[in-house]
Design brief:
This protein is α/β, with parallel strands linked by helices. Helices cover about 40% and strands about 15% of the residues. α5 crosses α6.
Length: about 300
């Protein structure tokens, strides 16, 4: 029986396989832009399980899968109480008989691992509290588009060492990057993952707490909201802790380069990033947002091969 492929962590794949996804993303993007007739998922269905709501994730997956000839089914938090109303392994096995692929956007990372363990169809990780692999694949594709190269680019992430950072660290185990996570003390990414990414010996990894020195020579400065979904009760406290980590015009000027700005969205303007930086010529946040669609399409095509 053919082994089922899933997309759960970027580091589950080798660099050649990731490059295959990026190159296919470029082809699929051109087809989409030209509105070509392209239907690799004709008569197929995608179950989209959302424990965590998201506008961009739903719209990009649903639009992409249906453009490619399939049917995407949205299942919100009230449709499936994943991990509550019934066993995850039961959901996985039932959906495997109804659908051709599952995309899940969840809180608990163990839930997506359990889905994959019992599924006989591909599972795509649309986000968990631990990582966000589709986002970072779209991000590195966007960097490639703008810089023409990704090898040893300096990417400085400013803010909480969250699931976005974890996926950058997974990517750094596959592609040679110069990755810096600049965060307040106590908000560092997972220590074991940092060690694993350093031990891989492919990229330069730095965890620092000094924004001004961190951004020197940065090709890209990247940020995210200071309080993610499920952390909003901490928002006021975090605003005081993170205030020196705001990406503003002064910080961008300290890089000494024509540095690109990235944000995975949604952005809280004039909190983690100023409105001026968001609207600047160096901001490529909406290219990132668009590229989620194309890269996710490529990932789903590769999983179905």
């Amino acid at each position: 029986m053919k082994k089922v492929k899933h997309f759960l962590h970027i580091s589950d794949y080798g660099s050649e396989e990731l490059w295959d996804i990026l190159n296919l993303s470029k082809e699929v993007k051109a087809k989409f832009r030209n509105r070509e007739d392209y239907t690799p998922f004709k008569n197929k269905s995608l179950a989209m399980i959302f424990a965590k709501p998201s506008a961009r994730t739903r719209v990009s997956f649903e639009t992409g899968f249906e453009w490619m000839g399939g049917h995407a089914l949205f299942l919100g938090p009230t449709d499936i109480g994943i991990g509550k109303r019934e066993a995850i392994k039961d959901i996985s096995r039932v959906f495997s008989r109804y659908n051709d692929m599952i995309m899940a956007r969840l809180f608990d990372h163990n839930h997506i691992l359990k889905l994959a363990e019992y599924s006989t169809i591909p599972i795509v990780n649309g986000l968990t509290d631990y990582n966000h692999p589709c986002q970072i694949m779209a991000d590195i594709f966007t960097v490639w588009e703008h810089l023409g190269n990704i090898e040893n680019v300096k990417i400085v992430y400013m803010g909480d060492g969250n699931n976005i950072v974890h996926s950058w660290l997974h990517l750094a185990m596959c592609f040679p990057l110069n990755f810096v996570c600049c965060c307040p003390k106590g908000y560092e990414p997972d220590k074991d993952l940092v060690k694993q990414s350093k031990d891989a010996g492919i990229s330069t990894i730095e965890i620092t707490h000094d924004p001004k020195s961190a951004v020197k020579d940065a090709d890209v400065i990247y940020t995210d909201v200071w309080a993610s979904m499920g952390q909003k009760d901490e928002a006021k406290a975090r605003e005081k802790i993170f205030k020196d980590f705001q990406v503003n015009e002064e910080l961008m000027a300290l890089t000494g380069k024509n540095t690109l700005f990235m944000h995975c969205l949604p952005a809280e303007r004039d909190r983690e990033v100023t409105d001026g930086v968001m609207e600047s010529d160096n901001s490529i946040v909406f290219d990132q947002a668009e590229n989620r669609l194309h890269v996710q399409n490529a990932i789903m095509i590769k999983l179905s091969e």
